[in-house]
Specification:
Layout (H helix, E strand, L loop, with lengths): L2 E9 L4 H12 L4 E7 L4 E7 L5 H10 L3 E10 L2
Antiparallel strand pairs: 1-3, 1-4, 2-3
């Protein structure tokens, strides 16, 4: 398994309920290992298995849910 993390800054991610929904939906994607959301910084962090999913799919899913991404960066982890 190869692990990576991606960090999205969202434009207006919404309230506490919206953030819980984002987390639940991203957690359901095969290959996603964990999702953390910081409402204070409008940031979503996703750790994932690169053999199961990738940045394009995660970015697409956020767009499908109606969230606009202001910026992003990712990091691969060497094990």
């Amino acid at each position: 398994m190869s692990k990576a993390s991606i960090y999205f800054s969202l434009k207006h991610p919404g309230d506490k309920h919206d953030c819980a929904e984002i987390k639940q939906r991203l957690d359901s994607i095969p290959g996603v290992l964990s999702v953390s959301i910081s409402r204070d910084h409008d940031r979503v962090s996703v750790d994932y298995d690169t053999t199961g999913t990738g940045p394009d799919r995660l970015r697409s899913k956020l767009g499908d849910y109606g969230y606009a991404i202001a910026s992003e960066h990712w990091q691969e982890h060497t094990m």
